[in-house]
Amino acid sequence: MPFGRRITREKKTITAMMAIYCRDHHHTGHKRLCAECVSLLDYAHRRLDTCPFQEEKPACNLCEVHCYSAIMRERVRDVMRYAGPRMLWPHPILSLGHILDKLRPAPKLKARAQSDKKRR
């Protein structure tokens, strides 16, 4: 299933954040992830693949739907808290996109479901 630009960018952003976090916390080489981080990244990508909002998705912390299990959500938060501020220099475009996404209002799931029904 092909994904739109938004989901593709979200995947690039979480991949870049995970690389920074893993490099600094697990002392892996440049652009190399440990098994634990690969597992978390795969989980995050699967969550993005199944996001009910897809291209209209808000920043995950603003979303009314919690796609992540509590444990995985906390692990991803740790990664984002650490890597987020460190993304600006190596990945300025991804950083700007993420900041702009946080300014976008979160759509309501019920409203989204109703608009999908109208399109059918």
Automatic annotation (TrEMBL):
Superkingdom in the source lineage: Bacteria
Family matches, as InterPro entries: Uncharacterised_YgbA (IPR020483)
Pfam families registered for this protein in UniProt: YgbA_NO
Identification of the protein by name: Nitrous oxide-stimulated promoter
Native source species: Thiocapsa roseopersicina
